[in-house]
Amino acid sequence: MTKIRTILLAATLVIAPTAGAVGAAPPASALANGLALTPPMGWNDWNAFGCAVSAQLVEQTADKLVASGLAADGYGYVNIDDCWMAPNRDSAGNLVPDPAKFPDGIKAVADYVHAKGLKLGIYETAGTNTCAGFPGSLGHETQDANTFAAWGVDYLKYDNCNNQGVPSQQRYNAMGKALAATGRPIVYSLCSWGTEDVASWGGSVGNLWRTTGDISADFGSMLSNFHTNVALAADAGPGAWNDPDMLEVGNGMSAVEDQTEFTLWAEMAAPLISGTDLRTASANTLRILGNRQVIAVDQDALGRQGTEISSSGGLDVLAKPLSDGSVSVVLFNENATAATISTTAAAAGLPTGSKGGYALQDLWTGRTTVSGGTISAAVPGHAAVMYKVTPAKRTLPPSTSLLTTLPSLGAGQSGTVYSYFTDNGVAAVTDVRLGLDLPAGWTAKPLTATRFSKIAPGHMAISAFRLTAPATLTKPIETAQINGTETDRWSGGSESSVFAGSLQLANPPQAPYKAFTSTTAMMGQLGNSVSIDGAGADAWGSTDQYSSVYQQGAEHDGSTTVVEVTAQASTSDWAKAGIMARDDITGAGSSPGYVILAVTPGHGYVMQWDSTGSGQLDSNSAPSNSGLGAAAYPSWLKLVRSGSTFTGYYSTDDVTWTQVGTATVPGVNATQDVGTFMTAHNEGSGDSGEVDFTGFATS
What we know:
Number of strands: 41
Helix content: 10-25%
Strand order of the largest sheet: 8-7-6-5-4-3-2-9
Number of helices: 11
Distance between the termini: 62 Å
Structural class: mainly beta
Radius of gyration: 28 Å
């Protein structure tokens, strides 16, 4: 008879050293205009629309803010970004709204927005021209400030392009004084990209200041802006806020990452300016933006920015004191895999010796539990848990955590799963049962006990399972939801929890297909369908990081290669997916005869090639940093070779084809490798995403 061993372990709590004092003092000086006493909330068009701004867009967004309830949640500013104006000032030197985009002028839009109970923001730059090339305000500060006031503008985002080398503080002071002289209350946002130590003086000049470069809709960009902004807590306070840039919630990150960004921005008392198309926003995007408990942390009257009290190995703990004496605590996992993150109430700045323990209100689930002093959670990769912590004044369920770790498996393979359950409450829990919730075709066999009669506070139970994957897949790459489950009893009743996990399985490419990656990737092939879940900084110049499922030597003079791109993760505006041809696809960075035809989420369709025979892409079918058309899924791509000349086409219906470009490429062999490829264009962040192809054929 097999002996089953029950494992009861005292939980080991590892707390990183304190990184900074909780609740740093507010800034020494703040602009005395009585505005933005809490971080501004609203919407800005740039992240989702760029230069495609119009009166109709602004007014429709104002309608949506009201109809969705976001206005009632505090989203009060509707902000116009760059490209709203005509290319030239009028004969009197005044700024002129673009008559096509704003046929009735800016004041008419302001009146519309004001009638909705909202406020209007506008954009300019502390330079000779805006970032998009329109007239700037440098040297026109008084005239432009008076114009904005006359139009009824309530908020100015003041950018930093084409600044002629004039010191930032001088340029931003000039517009600040001009705004104050108008007598109209106008929130002043300094968009100086964090340069010239703006956090040290921004509060005496404006109401908020950018601490970073522009954000983009990928986790790496968001994480970089977080790291910069979180270190500047001492400079923020009522009327003076650090701004890590607009929210990318709803613009292409995962649902988990969207929620994480919103959590971190609220904890850092950052402006909550939505940058998505609210008119078509998903229910989940509106749920995240409309979480009133999280918004309340951001808008708390005490005005303290949360500080990082510990950070180690990509596991971060932030604490933000609130005006009612509670503390908002965020446990943030920067890494791709789940981890348990822990701190204590004392480290978070709460009073010690609470006889009833500490109440932990999860601001995303709404569940409130009690802890003896440990604040802990099993946090999925790229996720954040947010608690509002107070001394407990009533009987509550115990704070517990469940972490389930999954092995890497292939089709038909087996591996060991571990589930870790910890009681962080003030009393023991009983009748603890650990298990797994599996999809069809998966099996699990317990290797240890899964039922425990009693777990004392501060102790852990561990169960192990043998997990077996199905032998046959129905897609090139399948993602299976494997959830750890737990039930327990406490003095007030029963509780349950779930740890959501997932495993990816790939059907390896079969002959005549081969697989290659110069970065990290999972690649699968089933019939003429291919999936690649890969990373990659870029495929351009000396950076040649991509993944490919290809056919060796299949491309030749007179050949035509086609593929359908059915789906593409938006890891970046410049993520690329499509057809690659080169003499040797495994010769990343060196093999000549190199050409790609690709779809990109943010720049449409591009053809790029190596014009020198160096083995590096250096030429683009469109002007720099641009492509052709707008990406659609599915898209069909076709690459035709004639001698050493390649012509690329795209179609959105497999009927009508549009030429993307043509190029003569040196160093082309008589036969070349050709296949599907992708790069995440993650610029070194490590982010990856999946691309799905079907119908790959070359003839």
